[in-house]
Amino acid sequence: MLEIFQYKFMWRAILASVFGGASCGIVGVWVILLGIPFVGVAMSHAAFAGAIVGLLFGFNPLASAIIFCLISSLFIGPMAEKADFSFNTSVGIIFSFTLGIAFMGLGLIKGPKTEALNYIWGSILTISDGDCILLLAIFACLSLFLVCFYKEIRAVLFNCEIARASGMPEKFIFYSLLLLCAMTVSLNLNTIGGLLIFSLIIAPPSAAYQLTYNLKMMFLLSALFGVASCLAGLFFSYLFNVPCGAVIITCASLIFVVCLVFSPKRKVKLYEQA
Amino acid sequence: MSAVVKIRDVSVSYRENVALKGANLDIEEGSFLCVIGPNGAGKTTLLTVINGLGKIIKGNVKVLGMVLNKRNIFAIRRNIGYVPQKQDIDPRFPITVREVVDIGRHCRIGLLRRMNEADREIVESAMKVVGISELAARPIGHLSGGEQQKVAIARALAQEPKIMLLDEPTSNLDPKARCEIMELINKVYWERRLTIVFVTHLLGHVSDRCRQAVLMKRGRIVWQGNINKALNRKLLADLYECPVEALERDMPLAIN
Ligand SMILES: Nc1ncnc2c1ncn2[C@@H]1O[C@H](COP(=O)(O)OP(=O)(O)OP(=O)(O)O)[C@@H](O)[C@H]1O
Ligand SMILES: [Mg+2]
Asked: What is the rounded CA–CA span in Å between residue A50 and residue A67?
């Protein structure tokens, strides 16, 4: 059993799980509390499309994934502000547009499409040292941003209008949140995969939310659940030789169900204790 | 006395319809101004002109001696306590009452700074003035509408603003809560020497501290002057386009 720790690729996978899981957990709290969970879907597909386009034209797929993802996040916000429709509609438009590009690209790639398909499922066991360092870097950026601007972030998440009316730089905070979210999604593309990363963004914060009324606690628990899902997924996929991303998502969902069942928020006090 | 707010020929538009047309208004320092008018008259829009939330397409605004522009806007907003008409508060948001009131303080102390002891005291005293100290640790979503209204006022007070903009703070409250909030506003006005702009369409909700009134209709300021002259049958019947009897049934005491 313990022989898995001898392999270097296993250590890389473990580090990727820790940093990637924690980043997704933090970003997830943002998008859930902003009420825009589907921004995760749109971004992961933009990143996926970017990676495919990169493969097709021979650029670095990761770099082009990041660029696509950042561009999409820069479209989503202003689109919702200018035009007269909701944020989720503009997210939906970006989502379908990038999905179209991705499939077009897939169709144009000649020969076997294994590498392209890797970006759908992800392959945490084959990542490089560089990938690991990037994951660490984005996690560090996220944490730093969260700690430095915690009070502003909380105000913006709570109510954008109040934050704006009381003179906080809410635009700066909001767009930083979106851009960091985009970076996180695109960097986790080849570990968890474009199709599955969405659930890793939604499930841990939702689970954390069941357990607490405290925002700091929610960030902490969500990051922990993210890490736990990734590590458990890694472990089980090694044991039973099944695709890692799928097991990660299953674990995340299981954690959510457990938290839902045991949520103290669902208990109703029948009698007021004097 | 000097004007803390100077609005000159300002028009505001939301896409296709113009919500405020060529408004001119001076608000004296330390005054209690009441903005009265029917639904859709542009009262909320007038308030958003003062704190720069509205989209001004014409005219200019000076607040606290600063021209309202991109550079000054943060400084101006920090000095204005705003209690919006409808607060879209997500009842499930994990934040306590005290943390909401903290937001008023956070904007004053600026980026990358933490609240110190003095700031915490200001927050506690704001909650005490409003009478929500016992609710401090409750999640905001677990409060009633009136209690949330008080939280919004406490948040604005924690800002230690020079101007308070209150957008119909009493319209959704029961008579008891309404009296409490009115008294609270009077007290705050008296103790802190603020400038208050108070919006309402219910004449019974006008505070007795109020001296000036602005009457609005269809995006225009149609009348301004002393509140006692404003609460006049003919003027109000014209403003609301309804018979005097109907007005009296609604608010028998207020009108003369
Ligand atoms: N977001 C918006 N988009 C488009 N039009 C708007 C918007 N907000 C207000 N309006 C329009 O602007 C006009 C003035 O609105 P405003 O909210 O200032 O009225 P009000 O006097 O505050 O009314 P109420 O008493 O109902 O609060 C209305 O005719 C309204 O239709
Ligand atoms: Mg209004």
From this structure: 7
